[in-house]
Design goal:
The chain is α/β, with parallel strands linked by helices and 217 residues long. Helices cover 55% and strands 14% of the residues. Strands 2-1-3-4-5-6 form a 6-stranded parallel beta sheet, with helices on both faces. The longest helix has 15 residues.
């Protein structure tokens, strides 16, 4: 069973997330917290596998809690629940060790997918979240970043660049496959190959490179 902690200062949101996750046979919501400080304490005491953290919370915000969790219980995987506010928050979470982002209006199936991916040690960013992150971080790009990105992309084949461009648009594997007439499994193989060649840890890093290089929408 995947032991999950849900953290949000709004009781209705916590209740909704608990209801969704509790419908899965392999996920157990073992604790709820209304602020970051409570989340850190519960993560330590409840043997949590995955912690869902809202960013904006009283007492201790989600980003501060993320840093504290990474310092004290690094084995806990953290998913950030967000509606995407300030750009520096996104940057801090990405560099602070979060396992990914999940939009608060995500579908129930996506929420469960994200928790399972995080528990398995994978980074997870939903297609919608990826697009928001890319748009947020890509603003204010420099010519130097663009030149570096184009240089890194030189090792990709033409077809790999096509797939990468769609990552830059935030498309899922299935949607990308429909766009360029590939099966979802084939796109997944291409994505894995692209991440390895570009030495990117996850899709959002690859998507940022695509945007910096001028690929995608």
């Amino acid at each position: 069973m995947i032991r999950v902690l849900v953290t949000d200062d709004e009781p209705l949101i916590r209740a909704g997330i608990r209801m969704i996750l509790s419908s899965a046979d392999d996920i157990d919501v073992v604790a709820e917290a209304a602020d970051g400080r409570e989340a850190v304490e519960l993560a330590r005491s409840q043997r949590v596998d995955v912690a869902l953290l809202d960013i904006q919370m009283p007492v201790m915000d989600g980003l501060t809690a993320l840093a504290e969790l990474r310092r004290t219980v690094p084995e806990v995987r953290v998913l950030i629940l967000t509606t995407f506010g300030e750009r520096q928050n996104v940057l801090r979470a990405l560099t602070g060790g979060s396992a990914g982002f999940l939009l608060k209006d995500s579908a129930p199936a996506e929420l469960m997918r994200a928790v399972r991916a995080a528990a398995a040690g994978h980074a997870y960013l939903s297609p919608g979240a990826t697009r928001h992150v890319v748009d947020s971080l890509a603003s204010g790009g420099t010519a130097h970043r663009a030149e570096q990105a184009r240089s890194r992309l030189e090792k990709l084949t033409e077809r790999e660049r096509d797939v990468l461009a769609l990552l830059g648009e935030g498309l899922s594997n299935a949607d990308a496959g429909q766009r360029i007439h590939m099966s979802e499994a084939t796109v997944k193989t291409y994505v894995s190959r692209i991440l390895a060649k570009l030495e990117c840890e996850n899709r959002v890093q690859a998507a940022l490179l695509a945007r910096d290089a001028g690929l995608g929408a």
